[in-house]
Amino acid sequence: MFGSIFFLVVVVVIIGWVISAYNKLIALKGDTENAWKQIDVQLKRRHDLIPNLVESVKGAMEFEKETLEAVIEARNQAVNIQAGALPTGGVQQLAAAEAALSSALSRLNVVVERYPELKATTNVGQLQEELTSTENRVSFARQLYNDTATTYNVKQQQFPWNMVAGMAKAAKVELWEITDETEREVPKVDLSMKSKQ
Amino acid sequence: MSDSNLFEQQAANRRRSAILVIVFLLFFAWIGFGGDLIFYLQTTSASSDGGTGYRHVLPFFGIAATLVAAGMAWYSWRKGPKEILWATGAWELVEPASPEEKTYVNVVEEMAIASGLPRPTVWIVPDKDPNAFATGTDEKSAHVAVTEGLLTTLSRDELQAVVAHEMAHIRNHDVKLMTLLAALVGVLALIADGTWRVLWFGGGGRRGRGGGGKKGGGAPLVAILLVLWVISIILAPVVSRLLALAVSRKREFLADATAAQFTRNPAALASALRTIEDASAPTKSVKRGTAHLCIADPMGRRLTHKQGVVANLFGTHPPMGVRIARLRAMAYAHEKTGTIPEEI
After folding, report:
1. Calpha distance A168→A161 (Å, rounded)
2. In what side-by-side order are the strands of the sheet with B142-147?
3. Which pairs count as long-range contacts for A31-35, CB under 8 Å and 24+ apart, including other chains?
4. 3-class secondary structure, B125
5. Range A89-95 contact pairs with CB under 8 angstroms and sequence separation of 24 or more
6. What is the pLDDT of residues B215-273, one digit of tens each?
7. Strands B121-125 and B132-136: what pairing?
8. Which of residues 132-151 of A touch B (CB under 8 A)?
9. CA distance B91 to B208
């Protein structure tokens, strides 16, 4: 009698734990997907801004064709990779493509700096501000994504959580990081149009 | 800040908000029922002398005062943020027109992403002095306001750091407590002012009436109660203001640290604080009651650049030099180790 009650209590406790662990993992998965969506939105914004920028500087920069073409090419590649990227695969590829785009943009920015009259037109100034902001948003969204993804990854591998992981269809997700050493060297882009006063 | 720290902080702030409201209600109950008691003792002793005068049995004042206080607390809870924004003359920035305004809106969006909070509404205070504050009831209905002066004097990174500091107040759930404090401190100040006036001008009449009661047995009790009663009304605004200051000073350091976590750029906040500090004109559009909401003391910087007992007791903010030094130390640690320390 006493034994069976004890057994029942143990079963109830275990079932309760499994349910809460399962829900926790699902919640973490949701957080990770949500953080990923943030990055996605901001990258899309970035990709949409670039054609506008190229369009507005094109006229004044007839003889800087390669720089512009490099930007457009890097952008198109990033767009292609983004379409197939998910937290569970392709994150690092996308990170590399975006880093390449950043460096192409920074080269373009150096060129634009050489044309003060171009920078003075409000349109280009506005686009530069938008791009700066978007770069920042991407990097903040990345922080958030990496933090949530790390929590999710660690949790699903820890004992005893790993026994529930299969049930919750939890799979390891990739972090947004650049593994290639040369990509790591990319200088920080400073597109801010306002000089420090 | 780690999650458990954050939850502790948020829970502590919720607890403090609740305590604040309870103390506020108790204070009004004491003012009301205490008045009733004094009146009751006086009228009973007067009528026990054989008179058939009025006996104050039902505690009207107490019931009324408690109801009024509950109404005011409820109003402050719900409408406090709007009232504060209205009092500073801020206007909501919906369609950014100038490049500065556009940058401001962008920076707020960026910090909303960095902090993982919904985007607060964005306000501008028409004032030439650089300052900023945040208000709101919770994360979902929060407001960030900066002055025009801030937009024109700070660089993009510095503006970002200031907005991050305000978002930190929102995330740590400081805004509700600080808004409540502002509203309730304001109410107390009004009542104390009114009492002073009554004592000043109406004192003569009251003294005449009180003379009859003094013959009765309850007189010493009545006198003691009356003295306590008047003292508590007069001291309430001073005590509540000191409380507001103490509460806000502590959280400035924490908000600075959280802001550095958001931007990963403590040096920008340090230089923004330096710029704000150097613009020494007071922020005229921010009244005394809301001073503790701002990033820098709007009452001029007489106190914040000093250290010591007076600054510790009466400054709404910790000495600016200390804040800047802490942020510089953070920036140094960040450069050396690549991580932002949670607190210094």
Report:
1. 10
2. B91-92, B121-125, B142-147, B132-136
3. A31/A148, A31/A151, A31/A152, A32/A87, A32/A145, A32/A148, A32/A149, A32/A152, A32/A173, A33/A87, A34/A148, A35/A141, A35/A144, A35/A145, A35/A147, A35/A148, A35/A149
4. strand
5. A89/A174, A90/A174, A91/A173, A91/A174, A91/A175, A91/A176, A92/A174, A92/A175, A92/A176, A92/A177, A92/A178, A92/A179, A94/A43, A94/A176, A95/A176, A95/A177, A95/A178
6. 444 577 778 888 888 888 778 777 777 777 777 777 888 888 889 888 888 899 999 99
7. unpaired
8. 132-133, 136-137, 140-141, 143-144
9. 52
Model pLDDT for residues A142-197, shown as the tens digit of each residue: 888 888 899 999 999 988 888 888 888 888 888 888 765 555 555 555 555 555 44
Give the helix/strand (H/E) hosting A124. helix A122-157
Query: Residue A172 CA to chain centroid, in angstroms?
Result: 17
Instruction: Supply the pLDDT for residue B207.
Output: 42
Complex ipTM > 0.85: no
- The predicted model gives B125-138 an average pLDDT of 89
The pLDDT tens digits for A113-156 are 787 777 777 678 888 888 888 888 888 888 888 888 999 999 99
The reply to whether A125 touches chain B by the CB within 8 Å rule is: yes
- Taking the CA of residue B290 as centre, how many other CA atoms within 13 Å lie in the half-sphere pointing to its CB? 26
Residue A104 · residue A183 · CB < 8 Å? no
Measured in angstroms, the CA of A143 and the nearest CA of chain B are apart by 7
Question: Among candidates B327, B21, A30, B10, which has minimal Cα distance to B29?
Answer: B21
Of the candidates B99, B110, B155, the beta carbon closest to that of A197 is on: B155
Q: Is B166 a catalytic residue?
A: yes
* pLDDT score at B46: 62
Nearest to B185 by CA among B141, B246, B96: B246
| Angular region, B131: left φ>0, alpha ψ -120 to 50, beta rest | beta
Cβ contact A133–B153 (<8 Å): no
Catalytic residue, chosen from B83, B139, B158, B166, is: B166
CA distance A3 to chain B (A): 39
User: In the predicted model, is pLDDT for residue B41 greater than 50?
Assistant: yes
Q: What residues pair up with B92 in beta bridges, in sequence order? A: B123
pLDDT band at residue A27 under the 50/70/90 scheme: very high
Q: Is A192–B262 a contact, with Cβ atoms under 8 angstroms apart?
A: no
Q: φ and ψ at B293, to 5 degrees?
A: -80, -25
Measured in angstroms, the CA of A34 and the nearest CA of chain B are apart by 11
Which member of A38, A42, A129 has the closest CB to residue B102? A129
The overall pTM is greater than 0.90: no
Q: Do B157 and A141 touch (CB under 8 A)?
A: no
Peptide bond into B318 cis (omega under 30): no
Q: Looking at the complex, does the CB of residue A193 fall below 8 Å from at least one CB of chain B?
A: yes
- Which token pair is B149? 């002066």
Distance, CA of B36 to CA of A133 (rounded, Å):
62
